[in-house]
Design a protein that fits this description.
The chain is about 35% helix and about 20% strand. By secondary structure, it is α+β, with helices and mostly antiparallel strands. The longest helix is centred in the C-terminal third of the chain and has 26 residues, at about 550-575.
């Protein structure tokens, strides 16, 4: 049935229902919901939200031992300022200063909105939002509402959006971003509820603006802590001409794979056994002691891994990130499976806690946990951590927990300006899909960035990009070719066999082996060639025998484009002299051997920070990646004399 506010166009034999809005928001995580909520409050109500699954995504389904929100200090006597916070973000290397200043300036506003909506951030009896220090944080700016902070944020924002009756198109997968001459035209979606019906399979949106809040490209990796059902959609953005930025910069860490969850904090501090097995579960052995000189050196490093959870090349030698490398060797080089076992102490022996490092011994003594087995200590220190896995079907009291070195967060993404608009006019990127971070970032800054970016984009649209989209005839003329190409893929891939899942699994596993925390130039180049061949022959290689698999076909297409662009950026970084930094270990035969006990491949050269002021930008053009290196934009130093700012604010255009 044709909805009253839609129209029909016929392209390539398909009847395509077209909806028209000023702005469409893609994604229903914390950033997407906030964008819609802000737009409505700013007066732009001709909006809609499009989402593959309103209940999926990282914001709603991910967390950690204590999920952090990073913001300006709002308690105690600690000194802080917008300028200091901006400088901290800027110090993370490869960060544009105007973005850092915006995130610092608006952190309090965005945080307090969440508190007013009902997110239970802890507050003192006098109204102070108390804080603690997180990684790369010189102050105590971090706070938390518990292990599910982003879930609580999303739920509160969703209630606000629902109360405003903002239209939500659930079960709609964006499969193409429609552009022409550097300007946004709209979106083409697959209606996931109607994939079998050719007359209802595709839906298009003719819109003046899109706020893209699809999260990081999690689907690229097999070993991933992103929740199942979160794939990202950065590939089709690159295909549409959107520029990428800092694509080499990711964060990786140890995580369980079923369910996907960070094993940081207490999970490490209770000193579990690390065991590996053959794929069939046989040949169980504790492998860490093959590297460490004695069991107490090993146990102390495992404890430290809880504090220093992200893989960091600076800590890969004599630091805690050696644990990540040892797990990677077992999984990706030996083809074994790795588990945490909380049921008994490492090596099956009682622990003399006085022989641990002073930090570990003191912590466990103060926590009253210098006793028993790992599960005894975990139940004593953090019983909800046990309850979490039990509720997900894994009882740590009775069984081991499978883990891997997993992709956790993309610090790079789509390049944006100070209003979170990309190089495509009318196309904004907010949340993790946007490249607001650099090499290092304070823990929890991603949650703040998503709220600030979506607020900035909404304010700019409400002030500068109002009005209806262009008329339907112009829309159809501008998008006919691309829609024809994308819809034709349905018929081209349909056949008598189905191999899309097999190709997906192979491609994702390959990416985790060559393009994650451990990167080898030759292996990456070889993989790029394989991906390019698959993309060039996509409709001939990929096959399905049921149209219910079409969503995965389009996701695979997006994923392969994404892998191609990201891996190409890694090759360019290496060819420009880039070395190991952040969470990326680039092998280097002429570099320093990490340790004689490790395979030869683990030689590297640590980056000297000389590239911290440079930003790599990547553009996909005619099937090839074009790179541009530029100096990052410095933190703006503008006139903050009150009367002058007030006058600019009144004139509006000078501010927004």
């Amino acid at each position: 049935m044709l909805l009253l506010d839609s129209k029909i166009v016929i392209i390539n034999g398909y009847e395509i229902e077209v909806f028209e809005y000023n702005t469409v928001i893609v994604g229903t995580g914390a950033a997407g919901f906030n964008a819609a909520d802000r737009l409505y409050d700013y007066g732009q109500k001709d909006i809609a939200i499009v989402t593959e699954d309103i209940n999926a995504g990282t914001s709603r389904n991910a967390g950690s031992d204590k999920q952090t929100y990073y913001k300006l200090t709002l308690s105690g006597e600690d000194s802080d300022s917008v300028g200091e916070l901006a400088q901290t973000l800027f110090n993370g290397q490869c960060v544009d200063g105007d973005i850092a200043l915006a995130e610092a300036s608006m952190s309090a506003q965005c945080f307090l909105k969440l508190a007013d909506l009902g997110v239970p951030f802890p507050v003192s009896r006098y109204g102070e939002y108390v804080g603690y220090k997180t990684d790369h944080d010189p102050r105590r700016r971090a706070t938390s509402a518990g292990p599910l902070t982003s879930k609580l944020m999303t739920e509160c924002l969703e209630r606000s959006v629902t109360a405003k009756n903002i239209k939500i198109f659930d079960k709609h997968q964006v499969i193409s971003i429609l552009t022409s001459e550097g300007k946004l035209k709209g979106l083409l979606c697959l209606n996931l509820n109607q994939v079998k019906d050719k007359t209802k399979r595709f839906v298009a949106f003719n819109c003046k603006n899109v706020i893209y809040a699809t999260g990081g490209p999690a689907g690229m990796y097999a070993d991933s802590v992103y929740p199942f059902g979160h794939y990202g959609a950065s590939g089709i953005a690159f295909e549409a001409g959107v520029t990428g930025k800092n694509l080499t910069e990711w964060q990786y860490g140890l995580a369980s794979i079923k369910p996907r969850w960070n094993v940081s904090g207490t999970y490490m501090q209770v000193l579990p056994r690390f065991i590996s097995t053959l794929p069939d579960g046989t040949d169980e052995r504790e492998f860490l002691l093959d590297f460490f000189h004695n069991e107490y050196e090993m146990l102390s490093m495992v404890f430290l891994k809880g504090y220093e959870w992200p893989f960091d090349v600076r800590k890969a030698g004599s630091g805690s990130s050696i644990i990540d490398i040892l797990v990677y060797i077992e999984c990706c080089m030996k083809g074994r499976r790795v588990f945490l076992d909380f049921r008994s102490n490492p090596l099956g022996r009682d622990i003399d806690f006085t022989k641990l490092s002073p930090e570990a011994a003191e912590y466990l003594e103060k926590a009253g946990a210098a006793f028993g087995t790992p599960i005894d200590r975990l139940l004593h220190m953090n019983s909800p951590a046990v309850d979490f896995y039990r509720n997900k079907g894994v009882d740590l009291v009775k069984e081991p927990l499978e883990i891997a070195l997993c992709a956790q967060h993309n610090n790079g993404g789509l390049s944006i300006d100070k209003w979170w608009q990309t190089n495509i006019e009318g196309f904004f990127a907010v949340g993790e899909v946007s490249a607001s971070h650099g090499v290092y970032r304070p823990g929890g800054s991603a949650l703040n960035s998503g709220q600030v970016g979506s607020t900035r984009a909404a304010r700019f649209i409400a002030s500068n990009r109002q009005g209806a989209p262009e008329d339907m005839n112009k829309f159809k003329t501008a998008t006919f070719g691309k829609i024809s190409e994308i819809t034709a893929l349905c018929d081209q891939v349909t056949g008598n066999i189905s191999n899309v899942s097999e190709i997906w699994d192979s491609a994702a596993k390959r990416m985790s082996q060559v393009g994650a925390a451990i990167r080898n130039y030759d292996s990456i180049r070889q993989t790029i060639g394989e991906i390019k061949k698959a993309l060039d022959n996509f409709s001939q290689i990929v096959k399905i025998n049921d149209t219910t698999e079409l969503p995965k076909v389009y996701r695979l297409y997006d994923m392969l484009i994404c892998q191609y662009v990201y891996l190409s950026a890694m090759v360019d970084y290496t060819e420009k002299g880039g070395k190991s930094r952040g969470s990326a270990f680039y092998t280097d035969k002429s570099g320093k051997r990490l340790d004689e006990r490790l395979p030869d491949i683990f030689s590297f050269t640590l980056d000297d920070n000389s590239r911290g002021n440079l930003i790599q930008e990547t553009k996909l053009l005619d099937g090839k990646c074009i790179f541009n290196w530029r100096e990052r934009r410095q933190i703006p130093r503008e006139d903050d004399f009150f009367e002058n700012v007030w006058r600019s604010y009144r004139e509006n255009g000078n501010v927004y």
